[in-house]
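Module 6 notes. Inverse folding takes a fixed backbone as the condition and produces residue identities as the prediction. Think of it as a translation problem where the source language is geometry and the target language is the twenty amino acids. Below is one complete input and output pair. Work through it position by position during the lab.
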């Protein structure tokens, strides 16, 4: 794949509307090698980024590698993004670089990078961005880039449900579908996962019922909250931040997520302290209220054993201090929470 060249002679990219995104994903402008996908639905952004990465890969002759980068990678090596964009892979014809936008993604540095030729395609995934956000403006005005808004709507969710269930040979009436939509929340990737789980549960019945939905489909916000706290205690800040964005898109505030995180680490500490005192972690976890979901219990116990009471006793004050700071300065809760997740990962 040739590097960018002759940028000054190319037609400037336009600010795409949501209605034009699907068409762009199927057939990107041939001169475009850098794309920003942004929006409040982290799952939809991730799904479209994966679709675009596959399109870029098919456009190149031969096999293309997909490289994922996030704040942790850029913190360890600030030049990593430039290296990946300018390096030809050894075992493939090209690379597609997917980057999760965070505090470490330097917009002025990215602007300088886009101004010069590079060999590989770039996809940046971001949360919702204001029209005057520097990252959004950079991609909207650059001649070889594009900024694609990602906003889900009820029609898109209804189509997702119909398609997933039809593939499984299942029907659903309008009333039942409307009820299912109230249970799914706003995150498309999480919704697709829940509908696939529902289809597997109802397979063979011919039609999805209210009882099927009650039995198998959890509340989207609760599921995302649980995934968030376990990602944090496993030392995966990228996954924790993605779940935090999903919570925000479903209407859950960062403060509620932080309180859930504090409760989770407190429970981990209680069980780890019982183990340190010679007790059984299995018996200690039975005394917790609320007790971890049975499907999560093995992971909960693994985190207890790995972290230990001493380390958890040092991590809890970090969470509690962040909660205090966000209460004093709620306008900075996003930055405080992101900093906390990176600090926890460094110590886990």
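Target side of the pair, the amino acids:
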């Amino acid at each position: 794949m040739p590097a960018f060249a002759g940028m000054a002679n190319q037609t400037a990219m336009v600010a795409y509307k949501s209605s034009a995104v699907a068409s762009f994903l199927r057939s990107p402008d041939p001169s475009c090698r850098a794309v920003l996908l942004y929006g409040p639905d982290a799952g939809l952004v991730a799904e479209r980024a994966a679709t675009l990465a596959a399109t870029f890969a098919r456009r190149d002759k031969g096999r293309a590698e997909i490289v994922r980068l996030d704040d942790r990678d850029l913190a360890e090596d600030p030049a990593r993004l430039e290296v990946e964009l300018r390096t030809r892979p050894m075992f493939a014809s090209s690379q597609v670089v997917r980057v999760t936008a965070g505090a470490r993604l330097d917009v002025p540095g990215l602007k300088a990078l886009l101004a010069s030729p590079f060999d590989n395609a770039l996809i940046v995934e971001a949360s919702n961005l204001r029209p005057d956000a520097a990252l959004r403006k950079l991609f909207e005005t650059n001649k070889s880039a594009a900024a694609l808004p990602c906003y889900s709507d009820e029609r898109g969710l209804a189509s997702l449900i119909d398609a997933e269930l039809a593939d499984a040979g299942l029907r659903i009436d309008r009333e039942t579908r409307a009820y299912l939509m109230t249970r799914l929340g706003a995150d498309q990737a999480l919704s697709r996962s829940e509908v696939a789980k529902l289809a597997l549960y109802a397979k063979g019945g011919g039609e999805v019922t209210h009882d099927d939905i009650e039995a198998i489909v959890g509340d989207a916000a609760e599921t995302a909250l649980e995934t968030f706290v376990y990602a944090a205690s496993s030392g995966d800040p990228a996954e924790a931040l993605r779940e935090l964005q999903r919570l925000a898109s479903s209407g859950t505030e960062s403060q509620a997520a932080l309180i859930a995180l504090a409760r989770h680490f407190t429970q981990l500490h209680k069980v780890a302290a019982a183990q340190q005192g010679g007790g059984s972690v299995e018996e200690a976890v039975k005394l917790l209220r609320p007790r971890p979901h049975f499907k999560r219990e093995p992971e909960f116990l693994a985190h207890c054993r790995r972290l230990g009471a001493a380390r958890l006793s040092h991590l809890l004050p970090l969470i509690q201090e962040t909660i205090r700071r966000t209460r004093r300065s709620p306008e900075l809760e996003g930055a405080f929470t992101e900093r906390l997740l990176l600090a926890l990962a460094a110590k886990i």
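Reference fact for the lab report: Residues 1-12 have pLDDT under 50 and may be disordered.
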